[in-house]
Design brief:
Helices cover 44% and strands 6% of the residues. The chain has 389 residues and is mainly α. Its main location: membrane.
């Protein structure tokens, strides 16, 4: 999964199963007509008893997938490559054809179109008072390959979590984590646009990790689950050091989801059955309190850190703070330069001369020039980026 500045890269996280340790002897549920242990009720729907929890029917995550696909189709419709560009890929698709591979190797729209549709651009957020871009950018994708990888990850991770915890908690975890990823990205990457659901997806991974920690005592295969999850997280974060991948969105989403997991995904740690969930003819004898003290501590600490971090981040963003000035090495978290690629993310500039509908562009960084036939001046920025790429 990858939140992209220009060229997203993703990896799909596999599913894995975690067994819950049975603690049925902590429960005391007897029918009113008998007090013998052999008459115990082993499982009560909706309550923890013998290691089982209520299973939810997932619908929100599939709805998120559909929404992302619909928005991508709408973005391609607005892009209309044949009208706004001199050359396109799969031109037989008409206005749904893609920008050239050189401009967008992921088979998608131009950066100008993504910006128009709500991509994260710090200049517009800070000076244009368009804070809504911190949310809208997580529903946009840079290309077919980008959306395919992210939606597969969302299906594999999100549906399982929604079955376990319900649509309310997982929906909030997804959206807030996406916002956290956008916020950290905006504080570090201020020269390019960013799109993608990867910050929200990393939030789901972070939530899975904190859920394992806060509910540690009820799991049987703790170490295997922890090592598997850490491996998945590290592999996906490692992908973020490639150029044009917004790893700050990954990190911000992961940290947000990790903190939210302690708040939203807490589970009872003792055998406990609510009387309202017991079938007629049975009584529930409470054994212990539902939660342990360390869960309450983690809940309060995580919520405090999340609110304080988000508030401080928003204040710094709207004051125009660039965190790269305060952390000289942090840019390596998003891109590590090698002999194979460069991490230069500077903006491109062109000198233009227009006579009628004929536009002559010269890229100031490379010296390349070309003549274009244009219908409106909104195409100039897109053509300049294409010429200098």
């Amino acid at each position: 999964m990858a939140m992209m500045r220009t060229e997203p890269s993703s990896s799909t996280a596999p599913q894995f199963e975690i067994k819950v340790q049975s603690r049925s002897r902590d429960n005391a549920v007897y029918p009113t007509s008998s007090t013998t242990p052999s008459s115990r009720l082993a499982t009560v729907t909706g309550s923890f008893c013998g290691g089982e929890f209520k299973r939810w029917a997932p619908w929100l995550v599939p709805a998120f997938v559909v929404a992302n696909i619909v928005l991508f189709v709408a973005t391609m419709y607005v892009n209309n490559c044949p009208k706004n560009s001199t050359s396109c890929v799969a031109r037989f698709l008409g206005r749904f054809s893609f920008q050239t591979i050189k401009e967008n190797p992921l088979l998608g729209p131009s950066s100008f179109t993504l910006e128009k549709m709500g991509a994260l651009e710090v200049e517009k957020v800070v000076h244009g008072h368009q804070a809504w871009r911190l949310i809208t950018c997580i529903w946009l994708h840079a290309g077919v390959l980008h959306i395919l990888a992210n939606m597969l990850s969302l299906v594999f991770i999100g549906i399982r979590l929604e079955q376990e915890f319900g649509f309310v908690r997982i929906g909030l975890l997804y959206v807030i984590s996406g916002f956290g990823g956008s916020l950290l990205s905006a504080l570090f990457i201020q020269s390019q646009i960013s799109v993608g659901a990867s910050g929200a997806l990393f939030g789901l991974l972070g939530g899975m990790l904190s859920e394992l920690i806060t509910n540690w005592t009820i799991y049987a295969n703790k170490l295997a689950a922890l090592l598997t999850l850490l491996f998945i997280i590290l592999v996906n974060l490692a992908v973020g050091i490639l150029p044009h991948v917004d790893n700050f969105a990954h990190i911000g989403g992961f940290l947000s989801g990790f903190l939210l997991g302690f708040v939203f995904l807490i589970r009872p740690q003792f055998g406990w059955v609510s009387q309202r969930n017991v079938p007629p003819g049975y009584i529930a004898t409470p054994v212990k309190s539902k939660y342990k003290m360390y869960q309450y501590v983690l809940w309060v600490l995580s919520l405090t850190l999340l609110i304080a971090g988000s508030t401080a981040g928003l204040i710094m963003l709207f004051r125009g703070v660039n965190l790269n000035y305060y952390c000289s090495w942090c840019h390596y978290l998003s891109c590590v330069p090698t002999t194979k690629w460069s991490c230069d993310t500077g903006q491109v500039y062109c000198q233009s001369t227009q006579i009628g509908n004929q536009l002559n562009l010269t890229c100031l960084s490379s010296g390349k020039s070309n003549m274009y036939i244009i219908d409106n001046t909104s195409q100039v920025r897109q053509l300049c980026a294409q010429l200098c790429s």
